């Protein structure tokens, strides 16, 4: 496969001014008639007279005409991935008729049928599976789309923009024409045809325009759409208030589909959503599910400006729209719920998954320099680290300048396809702040490490922080220049108060630019305890030699909520890492009772922000402990963490029971921050109590399971029992749960996932049996993610079993999925790409499986890229 480089970018040779599409949906095939108004791009320097359109090898070309002249076979050339037409005029109309087969489309890219409805997924390069086109984001065109289909089977026919005409056709068929006035790249095209129900609402924009809002789903899911509608309206208001951005069409539609490769897609005026990111109902959806719906609805809505009105010049610029939009949706969720909780959750994800990616064979900068398959670059780095980079710009500029910068960016580039550098330039121009060194965040991969030390001069009352930065090598980048890093700090005095700093405030952003830099604070009357990297002001690993007592102190006194949690995490990490060493040496484990005391203090302090209590009392996860290890000892990490949980649970059981009882109130379910916090704390208490192994705690969990009137409490109890030694009880409630929910696929997915992630012995056999279960379907990505990734990503002890059975199983599934759905197959490889982090025996087995995939036959570009880079 060919490698594509950013440095080879050239403007398109031709532009498509207007795109007229006509889809005739038939039982076995779909006819796509395209009429394209094309003209040579005056900006192109190329003298090439041929027009080269992208088109997938499975497209059947029935007719091609230039200016109404049908071309003979010798006038054009069809290759695996393109259609070339020689000697075209400077301005002309190209017509093609193409036949495609949506029913055979298991890759779920282009046009496919999911549960009897047609839908599309075109980003990044799916449009070329629909028709021949200039399938690149810098070719923006005005689309008109007509869909014709059987009226009874497909009463609803949707595309981008506004509906402008409709009518009946012969043979019980009908048609609808849609017009989208905004020029857009083909990746934002969408089509839906099906027998769908919908809810409708309306929204009046700040300037008084009325917008119709519709959310479509299968009839049986009609009662699960209200939360998405509420979230959509909140998002529309928020974007007006915080960014001054209004919606621009008369209608905004969302459609729920069950077969979908990712979360959702921001097609202009017609978002298509994975059911898992739009359906929500208290009985079937957990609190996490509700928050996901709110966040994803917002994310896709925000793309209307950050992505659609201003789009990407080429796919190397993907973070331009994704990093910025993730930052926007994170701020939205923070404003709607608890800001600190949202930050804790995002940072936890970043530090486990993104840091691991940055340390692995697929490491890439947020603006990659090359790729084989762009689908592989919808990564934690592009999205999550990309959002952190935008957040750092926000921190360096301040809210006011940042808003000026985003206003300038949208005004300057509305209707254009631009680069990440255009974004940074707008921020620089609007604020007058120099971001030249900061731009390295876009081109250098890897997670910077900052080592901090300090000095206190009592006689001069000067406190100095010494910061040293370095960044480990990543593939293709052995040397890195120092980054421009905003390090937000505060200083705490002995009594726990924030000291006043020279900027007249209690928090100051240090701008670290050199490899080593000293920052002095004057009039510091006693040696302070520093609170470093407040709110996680940069995506870095920061080391400072805190004593355990300092961390306990910060846990209760730091005025920065994020850093109070961070102090608890650091204390947990320090203690767990020491115990892991003891475990490996075969020594008896003894828990430092400072952790127990600190947890007791948090459990019994009713004045604390309840939303944060359950976060603070959650030990660093196995995934995070793994990421922090040089060589990951899966079994030691699991055993030690379990030991600590059990020890804490036994020491604190009366406090935990009190918390459980206090939070176990019966009231109507509501997914607001306060009630979510209460359920989280209750279920956290239950999770500790279950580890005491006392039968009355099993009873407590079973009672909660039977009495629960919402999925959060029911699922929490189910997972705790299934992941406990009470195998018999688990079997009974698993069966009961399935019988109750077997007609709710999203609930069944969680049922699969709970079993796949069971750390007890025998989980792999269960997974293999479940693959034969009536509820499983290898063609449905949600099922694959729940069961197969549930095992390979959420069940480290079993996945890394010493007999290699976990690795072998995963490789078998990747080989099978490589043909069915390359994007999903390629995602499944991730745990194997981390082989270098494990001890030698496991390394060997993981590599062997990667090699077996490599040798298994013809690989998709997706799988080939990840596997070959992992073996390199
Ligand atoms: N832009 C889409 C992702 C498309 C993924 C294509 N493989 C969803 C989002 O980020 O909003
Ligand atoms: Zn996005």
From TrEMBL:
Its EC number is 3.4.11.2. It is an enzyme of class 3 (hydrolase). This is Aminopeptidase N. Keywords: Aminopeptidase, Hydrolase, Metal-binding, Metalloprotease, Protease, Zinc. Residues 446-544 form the Peptidase M1 alanyl aminopeptidase Ig-like fold domain. It catalyses: Release of an N-terminal amino acid, Xaa-|-Yaa- from a peptide, amide or arylamide. Xaa is preferably Ala, but may be most amino acids including Pro (slow action). When a terminal hydrophobic residue is followed by a prolyl residue, the two may be released as an intact Xaa-Pro dipeptide. Residues 98-188 form the Aminopeptidase N-like N-terminal domain. Residues 549-872 form the Peptidase M1 alanyl aminopeptidase C-terminal domain. It comes from Neptunomonas concharum. The gene is pepN. Belongs to the peptidase M1 family. GO terms for molecular function: alanyl aminopeptidase activity; metallopeptidase activity; zinc ion binding. Aminopeptidase N is involved in the degradation of intracellular peptides generated by protein breakdown during normal growth as well as in response to nutrient starvation. Signal peptide: none annotated. Its cofactor is Zn(2+). Residues 227-438 form the Peptidase M1 membrane alanine aminopeptidase domain. GO terms for biological process: proteolysis.
